[in-house]
Protein backbone atom coordinates (compact mmCIF):
# COMPACT_ATOMS: atom_id res chain seq x y z
CA UNK A 1 0.00 0.00 0.00
CA UNK A 2 1.24 3.47 -0.86
CA UNK A 3 1.91 5.65 2.15
CA UNK A 4 -0.02 8.91 2.17
CA UNK A 5 2.03 12.07 1.90
CA UNK A 6 1.58 14.44 4.82
CA UNK A 7 -0.21 17.66 3.85
CA UNK A 8 2.69 19.83 4.96
CA UNK A 9 5.03 17.95 2.62
CA UNK A 10 2.73 18.60 -0.35
CA UNK A 11 2.37 22.28 0.47
CA UNK A 12 6.02 22.87 1.38
CA UNK A 13 7.36 21.00 -1.65
CA UNK A 14 5.07 22.88 -4.04
CA UNK A 15 5.85 26.29 -2.53
CA UNK A 16 9.61 25.79 -2.51
CA UNK A 17 9.67 24.39 -6.05
CA UNK A 18 7.78 27.48 -7.22
CA UNK A 19 10.27 29.68 -5.37
CA UNK A 20 13.19 27.94 -7.09
CA UNK A 21 11.53 28.24 -10.49
CA UNK A 22 11.17 32.00 -10.04
CA UNK A 23 14.76 32.46 -8.85
CA UNK A 24 16.23 30.40 -11.66
CA UNK A 25 14.38 32.18 -14.45
CA UNK A 26 15.57 35.52 -13.06
CA UNK A 27 19.12 34.16 -13.29
CA UNK A 28 18.65 33.21 -16.95
CA UNK A 29 16.96 36.49 -17.88
CA UNK A 30 19.34 38.64 -15.83
CA UNK A 31 22.69 40.14 -16.71
CA UNK A 32 24.66 36.90 -16.27
CA UNK A 33 22.15 34.67 -18.09
CA UNK A 34 23.17 31.70 -15.95
CA UNK A 35 21.40 29.11 -13.86
CA UNK A 36 21.21 29.77 -10.13
CA UNK A 37 19.36 26.82 -8.63
CA UNK A 38 21.48 23.97 -10.05
CA UNK A 39 25.12 23.37 -10.85
CA UNK A 40 25.27 20.98 -13.81
CA UNK A 41 25.38 23.61 -16.54
CA UNK A 42 27.55 25.97 -14.52
CA UNK A 43 30.10 23.22 -13.91
CA UNK A 44 30.29 22.51 -17.65
CA UNK A 45 30.62 26.23 -18.40
CA UNK A 46 33.40 26.47 -15.81
CA UNK A 47 35.35 23.77 -17.62
CA UNK A 48 34.86 25.54 -20.96
CA UNK A 49 35.93 28.86 -19.43
CA UNK A 50 39.11 27.32 -18.04
CA UNK A 51 40.03 25.82 -21.41
CA UNK A 52 39.23 29.09 -23.16
CA UNK A 53 41.23 31.16 -20.69
CA UNK A 54 38.25 33.35 -19.79
CA UNK A 55 39.28 34.12 -16.23
CA UNK A 56 36.38 36.52 -15.65
CA UNK A 57 33.92 33.72 -16.40
CA UNK A 58 35.99 31.33 -14.27
CA UNK A 59 35.70 33.72 -11.33
CA UNK A 60 31.95 34.19 -11.77
CA UNK A 61 31.14 30.52 -12.24
CA UNK A 62 33.45 29.39 -9.47
CA UNK A 63 31.82 31.88 -7.12
CA UNK A 64 28.34 30.60 -8.05
CA UNK A 65 29.30 26.99 -7.40
CA UNK A 66 31.03 27.82 -4.12
CA UNK A 67 28.02 29.90 -3.04
CA UNK A 68 25.56 27.05 -3.64
CA UNK A 69 27.77 24.64 -1.70
CA UNK A 70 28.16 27.22 1.05
CA UNK A 71 24.38 27.55 1.31
CA UNK A 72 24.05 23.78 1.61
CA UNK A 73 26.71 23.78 4.33
CA UNK A 74 24.79 26.50 6.17
CA UNK A 75 21.69 24.32 6.02
CA UNK A 76 23.68 21.46 7.49
CA UNK A 77 24.68 23.67 10.40
CA UNK A 78 21.11 24.84 11.01
CA UNK A 79 18.87 21.84 10.24
CA UNK A 80 21.43 19.10 11.02
CA UNK A 81 19.58 16.37 9.15
CA UNK A 82 18.51 15.65 5.57
CA UNK A 83 15.29 13.81 6.45
CA UNK A 84 12.07 15.82 6.38
CA UNK A 85 10.58 15.88 9.86
CA UNK A 86 8.45 18.32 11.79
CA UNK A 87 10.43 19.89 14.60
CA UNK A 88 13.51 20.70 12.54
CA UNK A 89 14.71 24.31 12.34
CA UNK A 90 13.23 24.96 8.91
CA UNK A 91 11.82 28.30 10.02
CA UNK A 92 15.30 29.66 10.70
CA UNK A 93 16.64 28.38 7.37
CA UNK A 94 13.72 29.81 5.36
CA UNK A 95 13.96 33.18 7.09
CA UNK A 96 17.67 33.36 6.22
CA UNK A 97 16.83 32.44 2.62
CA UNK A 98 14.32 35.29 2.51
CA UNK A 99 16.89 37.78 3.80
CA UNK A 100 19.47 36.60 1.25
CA UNK A 101 17.02 37.14 -1.61
CA UNK A 102 16.09 40.59 -0.34
CA UNK A 103 19.76 41.55 -0.19
CA UNK A 104 20.35 40.17 -3.70
CA UNK A 105 17.90 42.52 -5.45
CA UNK A 106 19.90 45.80 -5.26
CA UNK A 107 23.07 43.95 -6.22
CA UNK A 108 21.36 42.43 -9.26
CA UNK A 109 20.22 45.91 -10.27
CA UNK A 110 23.82 47.11 -10.13
CA UNK A 111 24.86 44.05 -12.19
CA UNK A 112 27.12 43.07 -9.32
CA UNK A 113 28.24 39.46 -8.93
CA UNK A 114 27.05 39.57 -5.33
CA UNK A 115 23.43 39.39 -6.53
CA UNK A 116 23.55 35.94 -8.14
CA UNK A 117 25.97 34.74 -5.47
CA UNK A 118 23.51 35.57 -2.68
CA UNK A 119 20.70 33.95 -4.68
CA UNK A 120 22.85 30.82 -5.13
CA UNK A 121 23.51 30.66 -1.38
CA UNK A 122 19.75 30.90 -0.81
CA UNK A 123 19.07 28.05 -3.25
CA UNK A 124 21.79 25.83 -1.81
CA UNK A 125 20.33 26.42 1.63
CA UNK A 126 16.82 25.57 0.45
CA UNK A 127 17.80 22.47 -1.49
CA UNK A 128 19.79 20.99 1.39
CA UNK A 129 17.08 21.59 4.01
CA UNK A 130 15.62 18.19 3.24
CA UNK A 131 16.56 15.55 0.70
CA UNK A 132 14.37 12.60 1.70
CA UNK A 133 10.86 11.94 2.96
CA UNK A 134 9.76 8.39 3.74
CA UNK A 135 12.27 7.00 1.26
CA UNK A 136 11.37 9.41 -1.55
CA UNK A 137 13.97 11.86 -2.84
CA UNK A 138 12.94 15.50 -2.40
CA UNK A 139 14.79 18.17 -4.37
CA UNK A 140 13.06 21.52 -4.59
CA UNK A 141 15.67 23.60 -6.44
CA UNK A 142 15.99 21.59 -9.68
CA UNK A 143 14.05 18.92 -11.55
CA UNK A 144 16.62 16.73 -13.36
CA UNK A 145 16.28 14.01 -10.74
CA UNK A 146 12.51 14.26 -10.81
CA UNK A 147 12.40 13.77 -14.58
CA UNK A 148 14.78 10.82 -14.17
CA UNK A 149 12.45 9.29 -11.60
CA UNK A 150 9.51 9.77 -13.97
CA UNK A 151 11.39 7.98 -16.73
CA UNK A 152 12.25 5.09 -14.42
CA UNK A 153 8.62 4.76 -13.38
CA UNK A 154 7.46 4.81 -17.01
CA UNK A 155 9.87 1.96 -17.71
CA UNK A 156 8.53 0.05 -14.73
CA UNK A 157 4.97 0.61 -15.92
CA UNK A 158 5.82 -0.75 -19.39
CA UNK A 159 7.24 -3.87 -17.74
CA UNK A 160 4.09 -4.25 -15.66
CA UNK A 161 5.91 -3.60 -12.40
CA UNK A 162 4.10 -1.93 -9.45
CA UNK A 163 3.96 1.85 -9.72
CA UNK A 164 5.37 3.88 -6.82
CA UNK A 165 2.40 6.23 -6.59
CA UNK A 166 3.78 8.35 -3.74
CA UNK A 167 7.00 8.93 -5.62
CA UNK A 168 5.11 9.67 -8.86
CA UNK A 169 2.87 12.19 -7.11
CA UNK A 170 5.83 13.95 -5.51
CA UNK A 171 7.75 14.17 -8.78
CA UNK A 172 4.73 15.51 -10.65
CA UNK A 173 4.06 18.08 -7.94
CA UNK A 174 7.60 19.48 -7.83
CA UNK A 175 8.03 19.54 -11.62
CA UNK A 176 4.67 21.29 -12.09
CA UNK A 177 5.35 23.99 -9.52
CA UNK A 178 8.95 24.55 -10.64
CA UNK A 179 7.63 25.09 -14.16
CA UNK A 180 4.85 27.33 -12.88
CA UNK A 181 7.42 29.35 -10.96
CA UNK A 182 9.40 29.81 -14.15
CA UNK A 183 6.31 31.05 -16.00
CA UNK A 184 5.41 33.43 -13.19
CA UNK A 185 8.99 34.66 -12.81
CA UNK A 186 9.38 35.34 -16.54
CA UNK A 187 6.10 37.26 -16.67
CA UNK A 188 7.04 39.36 -13.65
CA UNK A 189 10.61 39.97 -14.85
CA UNK A 190 9.26 41.46 -18.08
CA UNK A 191 7.29 43.96 -15.98
CA UNK A 192 9.31 44.69 -12.85
CA UNK A 193 12.78 43.27 -13.50
CA UNK A 194 14.83 42.12 -10.54
CA UNK A 195 12.09 43.16 -8.12
CA UNK A 196 10.62 39.78 -9.12
CA UNK A 197 12.84 38.29 -6.40
CA UNK A 198 10.78 40.07 -3.76
CA UNK A 199 8.05 37.47 -4.36
CA UNK A 200 10.14 34.38 -3.44
CA UNK A 201 11.65 36.41 -0.60
CA UNK A 202 8.15 37.12 0.73
CA UNK A 203 7.08 33.49 0.29
CA UNK A 204 10.06 32.01 2.10
CA UNK A 205 9.90 34.68 4.79
CA UNK A 206 6.21 34.10 5.49
CA UNK A 207 6.58 30.32 5.47
CA UNK A 208 9.65 30.54 7.68
CA UNK A 209 8.02 32.78 10.26
CA UNK A 210 4.80 30.75 10.10
CA UNK A 211 6.66 27.51 10.66
CA UNK A 212 8.62 29.05 13.52
CA UNK A 213 5.37 30.16 15.17
CA UNK A 214 3.80 26.72 14.62
CA UNK A 215 6.83 24.97 16.05
CA UNK A 216 6.81 27.19 19.14
CA UNK A 217 3.10 26.61 19.70
CA UNK A 218 2.58 22.95 18.77
CA UNK A 219 5.92 21.17 18.87
CA UNK A 220 8.28 20.48 21.70
CA UNK A 221 11.74 21.89 20.96
CA UNK A 222 14.12 19.27 19.60
CA UNK A 223 17.12 18.55 21.76
From TrEMBL:
It comes from the Bacteria. InterPro entries: DUF1275 (IPR010699). Coiled coil: none annotated. The chain crosses the membrane at residues 7-29, 58-78, 90-108, 168-189, 195-214. Keywords: Membrane, Transmembrane, Transmembrane helix. This is Uncharacterized membrane protein YoaK (UPF0700 family).
